[in-house]
Amino acid sequence: MSLRLRLTLWYSGILAVTMLLFGIVLYFFLNYFLYGQVRQELKRDADATYSRVQKSFALSLKGLVIDLELENRDIYSTNTFLQLYNIQLKSYNRSANLQYYDVTLPITKATIDKFKGTDAYFEKTKVVGQDFLIYNHAIYENPDNPVNLIGVLQAAVPVGSYERTAVSLRYTLIIWAILTIIVAASVGWFLARKALKPIDQVIEAANQIESGDDLEKRILYDGPKDEIGRLTDTINGMLSRIQVTYSELDQAYRAQRRFVSDASHELRTPLTTIRGNVDLLEKMWKQTSGNTQLATADQMQMSLEAMHDIAGEAQRMSRLVNDLLALARADAGVMMEKSQVEMLPLVQEVVRRAQFLTHTAEWQVGNLDVLQDAIVYGNRDYLQQLIFIFIENAFKYTREGSVSLDATRNDGFVGIRIADTGIGMDKEDVPHIFDRFYRADLSRGQTSGTGLGLSIAKWIIDEHGGSVEVTTRKDEGTTFMIWLPASFPLSM
């Protein structure tokens, strides 16, 4: 059962119950109001007649009995039918209108038995095929001791018109209620359909998203900001977040595939070199049959070169594995062990060791006095690795010219600048230089490396709450400015 149908049924059901209760209350109220006036008039006429009843003793075949008479001997009434019944004599005294119609009001043993608990009551019955409301009033021998019932005074009025009015009212209310419920159900169905139309649009949009890749689909809604409007805005916002998340996951998936491909390529190259040199050494070993004295000088030289190649490629693989391990720790959220690190001794140690790196460019060190008393809360080993990564990159991409290092401070930060006059980069490459295995096309194939160094450097900077600025121009060089939060407890 659809939500639209349920809402319509609920609405129609509540309206039907409301109309039913309203009709019942209205019917019984009008019925009570109409019959209330009739009862009051009937009782008033009966009481007035009862006050005229006189009792006297008379002789009859049954002996001495009480006779009932009226003061004027007759009963007169215009609208009310009156009848006086003597139980002992079983005689009737009727009003002129009853005599005119030759009608006697019914009185039975059941009528008399009802006076055991009361002295007057109303009853509705049919007389000559017509509906009458009769007021029966008991007449006792001694009114102060209602034990011996000697007569009954009856006052009656025809209520056929009232009954017909009540029946007409009943059918009118029923027909009106049915028509109202039908109209209300139709209007409710229309309003529910209009109100729930955005829900259908939500379902349609969800189906389109499920059956395809159209994550840009949104629900169109120009109605008021009611529950449906807020639901539509919420779902549109959710779709936007899903689209962003899907895009990020897609990019992450592409980066992961590229990462696996590049890592496989970087590992395959040294493995191929090692396997080739091992095969060469195996052939040479078989040729000499294990007797090194038979080996020629060329064979010895080739063996030595093969072992150097194996050792070099093994070191390269070791560095690659260490870099991958560092990035894996970063992805796993491994927290660095940090302490208070004095920056001046650390940078001086890096400068001293950097001069022993293989390089052809001139190594220049600027003024480092600004690092005096500067303390960074971080990991000493990782901070050294961070600076070494930028220095090694600068040497790698600077065949001629110079590589320089200096320092500065600014508003609670220390800055370390590494500048070179190397090959530089295109501006399109700058946003990607910290991506894993990314190497600008200009440098790919010209310099060795795995493309993981700057990724590790960015992770170290982020873990220390710092930042890095890059300034580069093609064929003119690159400058990296590393900013790290620092304290200067001894500064004045």
From TrEMBL:
PANTHER family given in the database record: SENSOR HISTIDINE KINASE TRCS, SENSOR HISTIDINE KINASE YKOH
GO molecular function annotation: ATP binding; phosphorelay sensor kinase activity
Organism: Paenibacillus sedimenti
Reactions listed under catalytic activity: ATP + protein L-histidine = ADP + protein N-phospho-L-histidine
Gene Ontology cellular-component terms listed: plasma membrane
Topology term for the membrane: Multi-pass membrane protein
Pfam families: HAMP, HATPase_c, HisKA
Leader peptide range in chain numbering: none
Chief subcellular location: membrane
UniProt keywords, alphabetically: ATP-binding, Cell membrane, Kinase, Membrane, Nucleotide-binding, Phosphoprotein, Transferase, Transmembrane, Transmembrane helix, Two-component regulatory system
Enzyme class: transferase
Histidine kinase domain boundaries: 262-488
EC number(s) per entry: 2.7.13.3
Protein name: histidine kinase
Kinase among keywords: yes
Lineage: Bacteria, Bacillati, Bacillota, Bacilli, Bacillales
